[in-house]
């Protein structure tokens, strides 16, 4: 009987300690991310997926925006996503914080065999990205080169 009571006490202490550690880890992770806008409560593994509903997404976002405001944080799995559902707020964000929003998260699956050094799509904003963009606009996407491709190989593939 004493062993059963001791086992229950140890299980209870371990359970409380695990809850405290999980909350502390989540709090520390949120501090690392920074101050995020308010949003609906999320589930531990799936995030807010079930709150988006099975209907069309814009209706779910509209319903959540009425409750949480024009800027809200949603967790899609373990990835935090900031949703802006007002055109005035979006205009202000892109006008005042365009450099911060220009960065992208590059996953390993996007890098391929040789990384993302030569890709305009996956390059991080900076001098290398500006050089790639200048190269594309001055050499690849000029009217002279696009006209040269018009009657060539592309048309033959479409026919």
Automatic annotation (TrEMBL):
Keyword Membrane in record: yes
Species classification: Eukaryota, Viridiplantae, Streptophyta, Embryophyta, Tracheophyta
Source taxon at top rank: Eukaryota
UniProt KW Membrane keyword: yes
GO MF entry, a single one: oxidoreductase activity, acting on paired donors, with incorporation or reduction of molecular oxygen
Organism field: Lithocarpus litseifolius
Family as reported in the entry's similarity comment: Belongs to the cytochrome P450 family.
Secretion signal span: none
Protein name: Cytochrome P450
Gene3D superfamilies associated with the record: Cytochrome P450
Keywords: Membrane, Transmembrane, Transmembrane helix
Transmembrane segments: 6-22
Short name of one Pfam family: p450
